[in-house]
Amino acid sequence: MSNTAKQNTNKSNQEQQDSDAIDLGQLLGILLDSKWLIVSVTTVFAIIGVAYALLATPIYKADALLQVETKSSGMSALVGDMGDMFSAESSATTEVEIITSRMILGETVEQLNLTIEVSPQYFPIVGKGFARLQGEDAEIKVTRFDLPEYIEDKTIILEVQNNELGEFSILTPEGDKLATGLVGETIEKNGYRLFVQQLNAPDGMQFVINKRSKLDSIQWLQQNLQVSERGKQTGILSLSFSGENRKLIANILNDISQNYFLQNVKRNSAEAEQSLTFLNKHLPNIKVELTSAEDILNTYRQANDSVDLGLEAQSTLKVLVDLEKQLNDLTFKESEVSQRFTKDHPAYISLLDKRQVLLDQKQQLNNQITKLPKTQRQILRMTRDVEVNQQIYIQLLNKVQELNVLKAGTVGNVRILDEAQTYTKPEKPKKPLIVVLATLLGGMLSVAFVLLKAAFHRGVENPAEIEALGLPVYASVPKSAWQEKLDAKLAKMKRNKHHNTGAFILAEDNPADLSIEALRGLRTSLHFAMMEAKNNVVMISGPSPSIGKSFISANFAAVIAKTGQKVLLVDADMRKGYLQKKFGLQWVNGLSDMLAGQLAIKDIIKDSGIENLDVITRGKIPPNPSELLMHTRFAEFVEWASKQYDLVLIDTPPVLAVTDPSIVGALAGTSLMVGRFDQTTVKEVEVALSRFEMSGIEIKGFILNAVEKKASSRYGYGYYNYSYSSDKS
Fold it and tell me: Angle at Cα 623 formed by Cα 622 and Cα 627, nearest 5°?
């Protein structure tokens, strides 16, 4: 590979890297150029945030505190091993689910009439906030609202007629009147039943009363109720509820806490009740068995002359009764263990082993008993049955008494530590946070918009971008504030339908303007560009409309005329040309009329009011401007003008819109292209150049119009700090 090829490759790679790199300085410059847009959008968002913070309905929060205690006493302790199952504790998660269940919340819905939803009617979105800021306080309390089941719309409108007398009307949502009523009196009509307990609102104010289902009311409570455990395994439950009405949310939370407490007491009492029912059911059977055993023993003693047991038999009887008691206890224990473990579990195996040991001891005693005389053996067995049944009966009687005491003193394992209270300051909205977030959002959106706009709209801001296409930039014309005033004045005269009689030319009105100074520099550059031209005709065109071609043409013609040269300015844009407005002339008798053969050349030349400068306006709008320009009359006209004037300037329409500039450029000795700063893109210039090249027209130079001093542009304008001054002393 040759050295030249390597250099080109390296240069191409370097340019690619430069284009891919992020220029932080340019990004900062883009933001600085759009600082007023960013500030304006951010301010609007901040105002919206402040308005929302002031108008949004405040949401208050109430909280309460409960304690779920360990069941360390009560029935579990009284029933001993038989009640081990009752000591299993509910976890905090279980208690939370109980509190938020329909069983608990349904009681609150019924007690507080939460199926009745009442809300005042305000102007949409902002009405409620303005009413609150103005101190308008509307209060209403509806304790009963029933309506027929077949009615689908469960809503009515209550309108205050006379607040002092408590009079109101009931309307349908469509506005039809149903009935009238008074506060404190029940209204019954057409299946509707309404009782208003309290009403305090301005006359004419309306309230929307809605009847929602119990399930919907419970779901509303579940959505706004928060229950959580404080810490880990503390048994302390924190309840909180959010809403607009401070008094109502406290009442709701207190009612939920009370309902949960009562159901807990009822549940603990139910355990004792179930045990009592079981014992009372089996106690008569045990008593019957005891009585029967006693009767059998007494009958046998009488029949055998009151045979007494010897010391050995009495000792055996005592041990046998103890074994029976232990076996009964193991039977209860086995029923409990069997619910928890399988027979392969070590605890279950240990219990069975212990039972087997007791059964073996019992068998040994029975073997000893068989050695006793028959009479003593019978009395021993009968006495054993009596004492075992007697112990069981006495034990059950004791349990019944203990459970009766427990049931009477049941308080549950839930304690209300803190009753519900509502905070004085609202939980929502957080006004400072909303304002800050709204301001940040406005700033981010405006910055994003500016950066996206800059990314997608890459207008020319640097003459080097044009020169990279091989097109020299003859002049960079700064944007003129003076010209904007002239344009505004001209637009005002047009709105008022006044015909301007003077010229609105910047070169004439303010010759010291920096834009005119830049055009003077163009005059010098054009002088050298025309040295090898075939004639003194200059065409001025551009890629797209609204880029300032007419401004450049008119003021450049005036600047040339000031040097004493005789200049002819031709408006060849026969579709939308408006050079006549800048010179205060009429568009009639213009170029199109001459090309159509209706007028001679001398009849269309108009005096501009500026010395050495003549103007030819566009004339009537023809149906075929391109065909007229291709006529031999136009070529003859150009040849004639070139001989009669020192310079002929022809202003043409944009080349990307029509083909007129290609026709004119073929006759002109010099062709210039105009582009607007930050509006005309490099791609447009490139395509326009391609159009001219296809027609065999060479564009000598480029004029960058309406250049602004922007922080994002690297191109500096030294002449910005230099201007004419006058001594008025």
Answer: 85
CA distance 368 to 233: 57
Measure Cα distances from 77 to 332, 414, 432 in Å: 16, 18, 57
**Each residue's pLDDT tens digit, 269-303:** 766 666 677 767 777 877 777 787 777 767 766 66
The percent of residues above 90 in pLDDT, for the chain, comes to 38
Using alpha carbons, list the distances in angstroms from residue 520 to 486, 517, 527, 559.
20, 5, 11, 7
What is the C-alpha to C-alpha distance for residues 261 and 270, in angstroms, rounded to an integer?
14
Which structural domain, as residue segments, surrounds residue 30? Answer: 26-56+429-456
Residues 361 and 497 grouped into a single domain: no
Give CA torsion, residues 603, 605, 607, 612, to 10 deg. Answer: -140
> What is the rounded radius of gyration, in angstroms, for the C-alpha atoms of the chain?
53
Whether residue 129 is found in the same domain as residue 159: yes
What are 508-525's pLDDT values in tens digits?
888 899 999 999 999 888
- Statement to judge: residues 373 and 438 lie in one domain: no
438 and 561 co-located in one domain: no
- Mark whether 692 and 582 lie in a shared domain: yes
Query: Is 590 a domain residue?
Result: yes
On whether both 483 and 449 belong to a single domain, the answer is no
Helices 346-369 and 311-340: crossing angle in degrees, nearest 10, is 160
Prior bond of 429 cis (ω within 30°): yes
Nearest alpha-carbon partner for 112 in 269, 271, 241, 289? 241
CB of 369 closer than 8 Å to CB of 316 = yes
Q: Which long-range contacts (CB under 8 A, 24 or more apart) does 302-310 make?
A: 304/375, 304/379, 307/375, 307/376, 307/379, 309/376, 309/379, 309/380, 309/383, 310/376
Predicted local confidence at residue 369, as pLDDT: 62
Instruction: Give the number of C-alpha atoms closer than 13 A to the C-alpha of residue 701, restricted to the C-beta side.
Output: 19
How do residues 126-149 score in pLDDT, each as one tens digit?
777 777 777 777 888 998 998 887
- The answer as to whether 232 is a domain residue is no
Same domain (yes/no): 509, 437: no
The set of residues, in sequence order, having a beta carbon less than 8 Å from that of 348 and lying 6+ positions away, is 337, 338, 341, 342
Please check whether residues 610 and 522 belong to one and the same domain.
Answer: yes
Q: For 454-469, how does the pLDDT look when each residue is reduced to its tens digit (9 = 90+)?
A: 777 778 888 988 999 9
Looking at residue 274, its pLDDT comes to 67
56, amino acid identity: A
Task: Give the chain's mean pLDDT.
Answer: 81
Upper half-sphere CA count for residue 187 (Cβ side, 13 Å): 22
